[in-house]
Amino acid sequence: MDGVVLAVSRSATHTFSKQNQESIQLLAGFGVEGDSHMGKTIKHRSRVAVDPTQPNLRQVHLIHAELHDELQAAGFVVSAGQMGENITTRGINLLALPVDTRLYLGNTAVVQLTGLRNPCAQLEQFQAGLMAAVLGRNEHGKLIRKAGVMGIVVIGGVVIPGDTIQVELPQKPHQSLERV
Q1: Are strands 164-168 and 102-105 parallel, antiparallel or unpaired?
Q2: Of the candidates 15, 54, 93, 114, which lies 20 to 30 Å from 174 by C-alpha distance?
Q3: Residue 86 belongs to a domain with what CATH number?
Q4: For residue range 116-143, what is the model confidence (pLDDT) as tens digits?
């Protein structure tokens, strides 16, 4: 289940899209250096309004490029970083991984998955119909969130496009990712 980093992105302000970078520095326990979501406590504005002391389980946002492919095939114009992700991957079914999966990125960095990104109205403001396109239902009617996964930085390091990603599953029983 190895994959590759296609792009890395960050934004120092709370913009919807993040600018692609040549590299990003992950800081253990904090997130992406220079990104508006970096910190030990939650930085997502709507969640800060509820309780600013919550732990930041959304330090790093990852989206699989296969979602971009699917959206492009449906007529959307979207590329790496435009949906707010820090790391764009290829070759790993991020949505199928369980909570606490560790992703080894490049030579040193390790991100531990905490949950799914809950798509927000900003997707719709970015492109009409995008919110509906990243939501679906399975055969049992359960809501499927396709807008990527969130994680925390366990071990810091530099991440660059082209880095390999190795997946380490947690011990069983596995817990499915839920929105965080």
Answers
A1: antiparallel
A2: 54
A3: 2.40.33.20
A4: 998 888 899 999 999 999 999 989 999 9
